Structure formats: structure tokens, C-alpha cells
Amino acid sequence: NAGVTQTPKFQVLKTGQSMTLQCAQDMNHEYMSWYRQDPGMGLRLIHYSVGAGITDQGEVPNGYNVSRSTTEDFPLRLLSAAPSQTSVYFCASSYSSGVRSDTQYFGPGTRLTVL
Amino acid sequence: AQTVTQSQPEMSVQEAETVTLSCTYDTSESDYYLFWYKQPPSRQMILVIRQEAYKQQNATENRFSVNFQKAAKSFSLKISDSQLGDAAMYFCAYRSAAFGNEKLTFGTGTRLTIIP
């Protein structure tokens, strides 16, 4: 049981480049989400998914795309990277019972720098 | 919209002493969850403790306990017998209990330093 995994751990991009941050979980969790962490601002929700084929926007979705084709994977795409997207990105997942939801568990994070 | 406020950017405590981290939140909901997450230098977000708003009893996990004051919308974390491994950023977080509303709202964090 690996929990929530993220790749890569570190990435440097040039402005305008695209890339995909990978997230996978092996706990059969329905709910998955992406957060970004900036200094002094805590974590903010980018996008989330309540199940395969269903995604929705969070607090700061601009510049990011997501898809959820399987329960296990929830990749985050940056279509044209900007310096403002320099941040640490966390993926999280939880089991939603349909009545009361469970605690979210976080991946190890990806530190992204956009030059 | 819900907000979470951590008014102590930094705290320090002597090893083996007790420290309390403060958190207040604002919500119009009656049913929700509150969490404390720890983020050590490794960057991993680690769940420390969780409180369900409908439970009057304060949650405890070994040396970690909370003081949950629902009417005051206050949720402080007490760390007893502080250890060097407790040094980290601590984040308070709120989540609605409504199904489908899984979003976590975080405070800005408190950096805890343990003095040997």
C-alpha cells in the first residue's frame, strides 16, 4: 500500500512550457484533489474530482487542467507555464462514504519552479 | 465562505514542555470537521488530529489534544512533552461535513520550533 504518490518531486520549467504532474493512489479513494502551497498562504484548492469522469474547479483553477479517467489517477496539467505557477503542489485523496466523508491524505508534493 | 485564521506565525517551546497553537474559524454551517496537519521539513503533510463538530468531547492522540470551543469557533492544539521531532509547520484546516463538499480550507500555518 503506497498511499498517495506524486511524480516528479522537483521540476524546473521555462515560461510557456507545458507539463503534467502525476498523482496516483492505491486506496480506492473516490475523492482526489490538487492544492498549491505558496509562502504565507497555506494550501489552496486548484481542482478536485469526486470520482472517475467527474472533475470540478476549486479556488485557483486558472492555468490548470485536470481529468480523471480512472479511480487511481488524477493528473494535473499546466498548458503554458507562468512564473506565477511557481509553487509546491500537493495531491490528496479520501474515501467518501456517501454519508460522511473521511480524512484526506496527502502525497509528498512536487516543487515546481517556472523561470 | 469559510475562513481559518492562525494568528501565531511562529512559536517556540522548550523540549519536554507544553505548547498551545491557536486556530479560529468562521462558518455558518453546524456540521463540519476540523483538522491539524503537521508539515516537517520533508514537506509531507501529516494528519495530527481530527475533530468532528457534532462531538462535544475533545479529540486526543497521544501527546496531542485539542480544545474545541464550537460557540467561540476556536480550535487550539496542545502538544504535551514536546519533542525535537515535533518541530514543523502546523496547519489548521476546516472541511464541511456535507457530502460532495470535500474542500479543505487551510490557515496560514504556525512554525513551531523546539528548543533543546
Summary keywords:
heterodimer, A: 115 residues, mainly beta, 7-stranded mixed β-sheet, 4-stranded antiparallel β-sheet, globular, B: 116 residues, 6-stranded mixed β-sheet, 12 strands, 53% strand
Oligomer description: heterodimer
Described by the principal axes of the CA atoms, the overall outline of chain B is globular
Q: How much strand content do the residues of chain B show?
A: over 45%
Q: What is the typical, i.e. mean, pLDDT of chain B? A: 94
**Envelope shape of chain A:** globular
> What is the H-and-E element order of chain A?
EEEEEEEEEEE
Task: Write a short abstract of this structure.
Chain A has no helices and 11 strands. With 115 residues, chain A is mainly beta.
Plain-language structure description:
Chain A is mainly beta. Chain A has strands at residues 4-7, 10-13, 19-25, 31-37, 43-51, 54-57, 64-66, 76-78, 87-94, 105-106, 110-114. In chain A, a hairpin with a 2-residue loop joins strand 5 and strand 6 (54-57). Chain B has strands spanning 3-5, 10-14, 19-21, 24-26, 32-39, 46-52, 60-61, 64-69, 74-79, 88-96, 104-106, 110-115. Chain B is globular, with a radius of gyration of 14 Å. Chain B starts with a strand and ends with a strand. Chain B contains no helices and 12 strands. The mean pLDDT of chain B is 94. In chain B, 34% of the residues are buried. In chain B, strands 2, 5, 6, 10, 11 and 12 form a 6-stranded mixed sheet that branches. A 4-stranded antiparallel sheet of chain B has the order 3-9-8-7, with no helix packed on it. In chain B, strands 1-4 form a two-stranded antiparallel ribbon. Chain B has 116 residues and is mostly beta strands. Chain A binds chain B through residues 31, 33, 35, 40-45, 48, 50, 58-59, 88, 90, 92, 94, 96, 98-101, 103-106, 108-109, 111, and chain B through 4, 33, 35, 37, 42-45, 47, 50, 91, 93, 95, 97, 99-100, 102-104, 106-109.
